[in-house]
Write a structure and sequence with these properties.
- The protein is an alpha+beta fold.
- The protein has a single domain, classed as Adenylosuccinate Synthetase, subunit A, domain 1 (Adenylosuccinate Synthetase, Chain A, domain 1, 3-Layer(aba) Sandwich).
- It is 23% helix and 18% strand.
- A two-stranded parallel ribbon has the order 1-4. Strands 2-3 form a two-stranded antiparallel ribbon.
- A hairpin with a 2-residue loop joins strand 2 and strand 3.
- The longest helix is centred in the C-terminal third of the chain and has 15 residues.
Length: 99
């Protein structure tokens, strides 16, 4: 994928499909080129798998840009937040980080 086409300003990745359309993977790939990744809707039923040098991560609520330390990751008020799910995801991320 050629990500050089990103321009300064606002870039939005969105679609009207439900299910695995690849949004999480595209956001993960684009995250080195952006300042912020915002999860703005949906809930814990959404999911995406990110594979990188640290391993494989299954995320439901945490934004896909989480693996880029220069990116501000935001969970917006439009997300149906399940505290148990987000806590479990954060715990799993910390476990992998400490290895």
């Amino acid at each position: 994928m050629n990500l050089k086409s990103y321009v300064k300003g606002v870039n939005v990745i969105v679609d009207t499909l439900w299910g695995d359309s690849g949004k999480g993977k595209i956001v993960d790939m684009a995250s080195p080129h952006v300042d912020m990744v915002v999860r703005y809707s949906g809930g814990a039923n959404a999911g995406h798998t990110i594979k990188n040098d640290l391993g494989e991560f299954k995320l439901n609520l945490i934004p896909s840009g989480i693996f880029n330390s220069k990116v501000l990751n935001v969970i917006d008020s439009g997300v149906v937040l399940n505290p148990e799910t987000v806590s479990r995801e954060l715990l799993n991320l910390r476990k992998k980080e400490s290895k």
